[in-house]
Amino acid sequence: MPVPIPCKLIALTGFMGSGKTTVGRLLAERLGWRFVDLDSRIVERAQASIVAIFRNHGEAAFREIEAEVLGRTLGEATEGERRTVIALGGGTLTRPENLARLRQAGAALVWLDCPLDDLIERCTGIADRPLFRDEASFRTLYEERRQIYQQADFRVESLEEPAQVVERILELLGPALVEA
Ligand code: S3P
């Protein structure tokens, strides 16, 4: 499905540590759009940290909340006509219905692609990612996830400074952001 013009919704996907939140916030600022970080919304909704949700209820329960919060966020953006940048969680697209909803809402899906070794460096020592258990399982998950991220409409390398990644996204999406 082609990205609608003008595009009013941008969703950032990519593995843990790829910069979705930082780049998303900057991108929204640059465009003057609203920014939503899906993980933060999940924490608000559950009144618990991501780590606590995984520990106390398991990943399946987390995915349920994630899907519900995504649905609500997309509803607000489309019904309220609010131009929005959403930073998805690294696993949001593991549920095909989440991808379908994003497409239905007309989101331009941008994959922030970052080399694995840099992701490991960024995530090591940070305790808020329950799926970063050890390097070996992180590598395996990364390989599985790449196919999922490849479904995005655009791929942007996310190794540079966030401001440069934002410029790159704006270049790629440029024509779709212009009002007819
Ligand atoms: C997850 C990534 C995390 C968070 C949760 C699960 C994943 O988000 O949603 O820990 O499955 O990759 P970030 O990608 O923002 O770290």
Number of domains: 1
Ligand set? shikimate-3-phosphate
* Largest beta sheet: strand ordering: 2-3-1-4-5
Q: Supply the CATH superfamily name.
A: P-loop containing nucleotide triphosphate hydrolases
Main sheet attributes: strand count, strand direction, barrel closure: 5 strands, parallel
* Shape designation: globular
Q: Which oligomeric form is depicted?
A: single chain
Q: Tell me the Rg in angstroms.
A: 16 Å
Polypeptide structure, described:
Helix 1 crosses helix 8 and helix 2 packs across helix 4. 54% of the residues lie in helices and 13% in strands. It contains 8 helices and 5 strands. It has a 5-stranded parallel β-sheet, sandwiched between helices. It has one domain: 3-Layer(aba) Sandwich (Rossmann fold). The chain is globular. By secondary structure, it is α/β, with parallel strands linked by helices. The structure holds shikimate-3-phosphate. Shikimate-3-phosphate binds next to loops.
Q: What distinguishing features does this structure have?
A:
single chain, 180 residues, alpha/beta, Rossmann fold, 5-stranded parallel sheet, 5 strands, globular, binds shikimate-3-phosphate
List the helices and strands and how they pair.
Layout: E1 9-13, H1 20-31, E2 34-37, H2 38-46, H3 50-57, H4 59-79, E3 84-87, H5 96-104, E4 108-113, H6 116-123, H7 135-149, E5 154-157, H8 162-177
Parallel strand pairs: 1-3, 1-4, 2-3, 4-5
Helix pairs in contact: 1-8, 2-4, 3-4, 4-5
The structure holds shikimate-3-phosphate.
Residues 16, 20, 39, 50, 89-91, 129-131 line the site of shikimate-3-phosphate.
